[in-house]
């Protein structure tokens, strides 16, 4: 029985290794062995029909062309040695334009998302003279990363979205929300969640964020974890620096509104390229809402 594969870590590794091989002046040490190991691992998680990012399409196309399912490690190595390193380097270089195109599209999407978020904030803040803005980051325990794939992540988020749409505790008096889906090598699949409540009815952002985090743990059968962005020490530090953009926001206070916009902009920062999703279930799967 093969050991579980950490999808987030592996897809990032494929991206990094491909770039290194393209730039290499000489054949890397143990190139064929590393190539074979990565191919075998990726073959275990590869989903034909999903949308992969940039360089990873080179690995998808290779697996579509060469069936290695019934081959063991040594057999894959021998199969790969039929071609030179220069051959493989040229093969991966052919996908450089795809990587650059997808990175460019990612930056453009994030800019559009920032504009969308700005309009969303305008509408939400216009509803009431004061709002309670809550930030919570949801993810998975590192011990669960080997079993969490993009499909499970999406399904868990769908359950959370359904709970949000019902507007029941802890989402009662919710005016609007935004979330951004990301992927990190150590953090795995995660989501930055911003919730805007009617400030006349809701307060105590820490307690709300804590309830949302506990709901996420429930949805994920305790495989999920969360970070409450309303940590008292952090809040005090941001307040002292004059950059506090969550908690109580008054519509007629320009500094509070500006700080909220800056805090919200972090969700869709186009410079966070290393956090982009390397795989989506389909081209229509949204990473921002």
Automatic annotation (TrEMBL):
InterPro entries: YagK_YfjJ_C. Residues 125-219 form the YagK/YfjJ C-terminal domain. Pfam families: YagK_YfjJ_C. Keywords: Coiled coil. Residues 100-127 form a coiled coil. This is YagK/YfjJ C-terminal domain-containing protein. It comes from Acinetobacter indicus CIP 110367. The lineage of its organism: Bacteria, Pseudomonadati, Pseudomonadota, Gammaproteobacteria, Moraxellales.
């Amino acid at each position: 029985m093969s050991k579980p594969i950490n999808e987030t870590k592996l897809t990032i590794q494929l991206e990094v290794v491909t770039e290194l091989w393209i730039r290499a002046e000489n054949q890397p040490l143990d190139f064929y062995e590393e190539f074979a190991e990565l191919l075998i691992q990726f073959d275990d998680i590869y989903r034909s029909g999903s949308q992969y990012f940039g360089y990873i399409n080179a690995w998808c196309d290779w697996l579509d062309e060469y069936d290695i399912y019934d081959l063991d490690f040594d057999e894959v190595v021998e199969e790969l040695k039929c071609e030179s390193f220069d051959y493989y380097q040229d093969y991966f270089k052919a996908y450089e334009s795809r990587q650059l195109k997808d990175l460019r599209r990612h930056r453009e999407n994030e800019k559009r998302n920032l504009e969308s978020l700005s309009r969303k904030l305008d509408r939400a803040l216009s509803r009431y003279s004061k709002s309670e803005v809550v930030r919570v980051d949801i993810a998975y325990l590192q011990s669960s990363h080997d079993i969490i794939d993009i499909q499970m992540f999406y399904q868990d988020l769908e359950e959370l979205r359904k709970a949000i749409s019902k507007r029941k505790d802890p989402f009662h008096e919710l005016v609007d929300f935004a979330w951004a889906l990301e992927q990190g090598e150590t953090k795995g699949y995660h989501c930055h969640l911003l919730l805007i409540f009617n400030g006349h009815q809701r307060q105590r952002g820490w307690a709300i964020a804590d309830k949302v985090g506990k709901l996420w743990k429930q949805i994920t059968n305790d495989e999920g974890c969360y970070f409450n962005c309303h940590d008292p020490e952090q809040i005090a530090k941001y307040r002292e620096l004059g950059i506090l953009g969550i908690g109580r926001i008054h519509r007629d206070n320009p500094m509070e509104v500006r700080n909220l916009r800056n805090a919200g902009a972090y969700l869709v920062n186009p410079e966070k390229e290393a956090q982009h999703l390397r795989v989506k279930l389909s081209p229509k799967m949204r990473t921002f809402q």
